[in-house]
Design goal:
The chain is of the alpha+beta class. The chain is built from 5 helices and 18 strands. It has 2 domains: 189 residues, Immunoglobulin-like, CATH 2.60.40.1400; 105 residues, Helix Hairpins (Orthogonal Bundle), CATH 1.10.287. The longest helix has 30 residues. The protein starts with a strand and ends in a 5-residue tail after the last strand.
């Protein structure tokens, strides 16, 4: 983003700069930035736990749970099993099993009572573990709430973009749909393009915010085919398939709307490279009417296309 002479904000380089010559895509299909940071890492556990997948999150929780209880079980062993009542002293493995499960009961404040500390050292360590367990439960509860309450846009994008007939010409089109039953209002779409271009014998990267046939829908109940007409106002008006590939064009898609369930704004983005564009094709209809159920939206048909004769 940069300011023009009148002081208004204009879309110039999306923050990448015109000198970037990378042939890799800028935005991955899942919407993440294709940027690897090296030299300095500002890693935080909270960010890692809130951004991780659900499987990854529970793997972290299980690892922490086993690790903490194993550490306290070893401490109890070092104190000596004779400092606990209800212990059947035996081999090392048996003793560790008993102290581990005692640690679990103390950590979770269950306290079945079959094993109890009777020495001063054992009581102090058990008290410390109870405190650690309470704090851990509070943190885990906060993380779960944060993950559940965070607004996440479940927008489904078509696997490919198409170049299809449009108003006596052609247009670049993608299709999106909401995979959830929640209501998204005032959904706005923006498509930017970035490509390589030779200027004065030097190859630079250029950017453009593309004009859309329609950039907003008030409601988003069905699928939405987002259309960029390839007319005189488009930077790709006279470009063919080979020319776009040579220019290494990437179309960056950004969606923004209001989610009524979360009462918050939601955002979603992805990108399409030349390899993901199908020429002379159009999307098949993915919804139909039903007398009993009303309108049926078939999400599994979002990628269905049909090839057509070459567009003039």
């Amino acid at each position: 983003m940069a300011e023009n002479k009148k002081g208004k904000i204009t879309l110039e380089d999306l923050g990448y700069g015109s000198g970037l010559q990378s042939k890799k895509r800028f935005i991955n299909k899942n919407g993440s930035l294709n940027v690897e940071r090296t030299g300095f890492s500002n890693w935080t556990l909270y960010h890692q736990l809130t951004e991780a997948s659900w499987i990854g999150f529970f793997m972290y929780v299980i690892f922490y749970y086993v690790l903490v209880n194993s550490i306290f079980a070893i401490v109890y062993l070092l104190i000596g099993v004779e400092s606990f009542g209800g212990v059947d002293s035996g081999k090392l493995v048996e003793n560790f099993s008993q102290t581990f499960f005692f640690s679990v009961q103390t950590f979770t404040t269950v306290g079945y009572g079959m094993m109890n500390p009777i020495g001063m050292a054992a009581n102090w360590v058990a008290s410390l573990e109870a405190l650690v367990g309470l704090l851990s439960a509070a943190v885990a509860t906060g993380l779960l709430f944060s993950r559940f309450s965070r607004p996440v846009a479940q927008i489904l994008y078509s696997k490919n973009a198409v170049i299809a007939p449009f108003q006596n010409g052609k247009a670049f089109m993608i299709r999106v749909a909401n995979t959830r039953d929640n209501k998204i209002m005032n959904l706005e779409a923006k498509i930017s393009a970035t490509w390589h271009e030779e200027v004065n014998g030097e190859e630079i990267r250029k950017y453009a915010l593309l004009k859309l046939e329609r950039d907003r829908v008030f409601l988003f109940p069905l699928s939405w085919t987002i259309v960029h007409p390839l007319n005189e106002e488009s930077p790709f008006y006279t470009k063919g398939e080979e020319e776009l590939e040579k220019m290494n064009v990437e179309f960056l898609v950004m969606l923004e709307g209001y989610d009524e369930s979360y009462n918050q704004m939601i955002y979603s983005n992805t990108s399409y490279t030349c390899e993901e564009i199908i020429w002379n094709a159009k999307f098949k209809i993915m919804f139909h009417s039903n007398n009993e159920k009303g309108t049926i939206l078939e999400l599994d048909k979002i990628n269905n296309i049909e090839l057509i004769d070459e567009i003039l």
